[in-house]
Design goal:
Structural class: alpha/beta
Low-confidence stretches: none
CATH class of the largest domain: Alpha Beta
Distance between the termini: 11 Å
Shape: globular
Radius of gyration: 20 Å
CATH architecture of the largest domain: Alpha-Beta Complex
């Protein structure tokens, strides 16, 4: 089969011919139709140390749309021919940037009634946004909300999910050229982070109060700006790095609260945590099927172009979502 591999010694991606893998107990073999590209795939050079056994055959790719072609021992509830969608475990080989991939059956969801490319564009970014908003920040219609990086994957989905809840004030940051785009997703205000003081502008937009909830999808150091934009007893979720309360202005006197989230970490924390990934996936797929969530600025590319695009994503030179179609 054709697969995009990552060599941990040279830090290079390459399309190579590999044998079709065999699923072990509890796993399924999936014929891949499409695989979404994400920053976590692009930044494999940073987290490869977490996988001592990584070799030059390692195949990345987490967000997979496909069809089950082989069921491993002990798998229940799934059969050959079932169309599925999943967010994979980055610490396992045989990812979705290949003609065939392996995934634990307990973390699969039924494929939504949309194209493989649209489906594969949603798990990492969309399910993360859903969990951030519903499980962590618990947004309500009367909350004001700031999301940094609204033109990116997580940010774009977060704006839509917040809008679906009915929030009246959704503020985001992005370059001026993307202001019309984020407004089309449901943002009520867009701040050009390159030319404006973000925290100061947020306070103006909120009548000097600050926002009730905030999601930072950008980092590094953006957490300081976001924390400064919070209202009294506001809450922030830091997605890119760890929170640093000691670095934030008057953190104790303002009664601020903080959250962390790593969607894929649920694969390594037991059945309950795996269930949270599945729950987010089912909820997002329902929104997709009902037309309440869309994937704007979706670009599809062949496997041969994936390595170049991953480098662009790592260097933050991409907008919207890119999906590899096999």
């Amino acid at each position: 089969m054709k697969a995009l591999t990552f060599n941990p010694t040279s830090d290079m991606f390459a399309v190579r011919d590999l044998p079709v893998p065999t699923p072990g107990p509890g796993d399924v073999l999936v014929k891949v139709a499409a695989c979404g590209l994400n920053p976590v795939d692009a930044k494999i050079t940073r987290w490869k140390a977490m996988v001592p056994e990584m070799d030059p055959d390692w195949t990345p790719g987490l967000d997979v749309s496909g069809e089950i072609v082989h069921v491993g021992a002990g798998v229940k509830g799934w059969n050959t021919g079932d169309r599925v969608l999943y967010h994979g475990n980055m610490l396992r080989p045989h990812g979705g940037l290949a003609e065939y991939a392996i995934q634990k059956a307990d973390t699969l969801i039924a494929h939504p009634p949309v194209s493989p490319a649209v489906a594969a564009a949603t798990p990492c970014a969309g399910w993360t946004a859903w969990r951030a908003i519903h499980d962590k920040l618990r947004l309500k219609p009367d909350h004001s909300f700031l999301v940094t990086g609204g033109s990116g994957g997580v940010g774009g989905f977060a704006i839509q999910i917040a809008n679906d809840i009915g929030l009246r004030q959704i503020i985001t940051t992005c370059s001026e050229k993307n202001h019309a785009y984020v407004h089309s997703l449901g943002a009520t205000a867009a701040i050009d982070y390159r030319t404006e003081d973000v925290a100061a502008r947020v306070h103006i937009l909120t009548g000097g109060r600050g926002v009730d909830r905030a999601l930072d999808t950008v980092g590094p150091d953006e957490d300081i700006v976001v924390a400064d934009a919070l209202a009294f007893e506001g809450e922030m979720l830091e997605l890119v790095d760890v929170v640093r309360p000691g670095e934030y202005r008057d953190v104790f006197q303002r009664g601020l609260s903080f959250h962390q989230l790593s969607l894929g970490a649920g694969h390594r924390a037991g059945p309950e945590a795996e269930g949270r990934i599945v729950q987010a996936g089912v909820a997002c797929c329902r929104m997709l099927a009902e037309g309440r969530l869309i994937v704007p600025k979706l670009e599809t590319i062949p496997l041969a172009e994936a390595a170049h695009r991953l480098v662009e994503i790592r260097e933050r030179r991409s907008v919207g979502k890119t999906v590899v179609v096999l």
